[in-house]
Amino acid sequence: MIGWEDVYKVVAAMAPLYFALILGYGSVKWWKIFSTQQCDAINKLVCYFTLPLFTFEFTSHIDPFHLNFPFIAADAIGKLIIVLVLAFWTKCTTKGSYCWSITSFSLSTLTNALVIGVPLAKVMYGEMAVDLVVQGSVVQAIVWLTTLLFVLELRRTGLDLVAAGDSSGSVSDEKTVQVGGEGEKDLEGEGMEGEERRSSSKSRRPSLKPLMKKVWVKLAGNPNSYACTIGFAWAFVAKRWDVEMPSIMEGSILIMSKAGTGTAMFNLGIFMALQEKLIACGPTLTIVGMVLKFIAGPAAMAIGSVAMGLHGDVLRVAIIQAAVPQSITSFIYAKEYGLHADVLSTAVIFGAIVSLPVLVAYYAALEFIVH
């Protein structure tokens, strides 16, 4: 069972994050150091420099020859379950939304495993659990965060192309048209008015070829889209042929990557300071976000784990790591691409605050349920 000393270790690992967050918040709210334009520049610094180098650095140290493939497959099944549920919600219900499906996927599946999950896993189940959490983080960076980046770029590029093709410019607002978002508050309606809105939206959608071409060009210029892949490729070479990274290269990467988490939390504090309310998205969306994070995500992971035959501590780790608080990276992407950054910021902050008692409750419950 977790003791007070173990709880202190977890809190001690999380405290520096909030120190950086408070500094970012105070720099705008109290000390008025940064302007709005400068805040946007800081977000770009995090998104295009410190974050990709941080991702490359931790990915490059994994051992690709000793991965727990049933664990990784269970994680993939859990995430695909969420994708299928959201796809059904988007296509088959009047409340369904392409944009909210993207955000809901982030809320229910993407975790801050390296910062919070690793120290928590270590005090709960030891080094075995740490190794599993790191493996899950690498797969998240390579597959799921890259996929998130792709759909966000697809959405923004589609909106840009539609806006450029409309002489009045009235469709540049995402409330007017969403790429693939037939279920959107703007396309709802009854009778002929609703049909006209849907028809207008479809007619304004860009053709697939120019859309995909522009998306791939933009992704090629975004280091986040390939930092994790290059890091994993280096890990494969290093472990296969026992090669060490040249010290000059490793030092150049480390000097920026070590700033990754700190600058991300600092940027989150800045975003909070720019909002009218501390809980930017309001209580209702906050509750929805917590349900997705702490209930829907672990439930989907439990189904995937049982399907892959996981048992014992591996099954416990799989479920608990799915309930780890929101990924900071998902907030950075949401802010950069202008999609529900208020919801993601609240999920990161509030999720980290309530995560400790929730995760300890999961730990205690799984000790009795899982054998």
TrEMBL record:
In its keyword annotation, does this UniProt entry include Transmembrane helix? yes
Looking at the UniProt entry, the stretches that span the membrane are 7-28, 69-89, 98-120, 132-152, 215-237, 253-274, 286-308, 346-365
Chief place where the protein resides: membrane
- Topology of the protein relative to the lipid bilayer: Multi-pass membrane protein
A Pfam entry, by short name: Mem_trans
Q: Where, per UniProt, does this protein localize? A: Membrane
**Where, if anywhere, are coiled coils annotated?**
none
Q: Which domain of life is it from?
A: Eukaryota
Q: What is this protein called?
A: Auxin efflux carrier component
Task: Report the source organism.
Answer: Cucumis melo (Muskmelon)
Q: Which gene is transcribed and translated to give this protein? A: LOC103485893
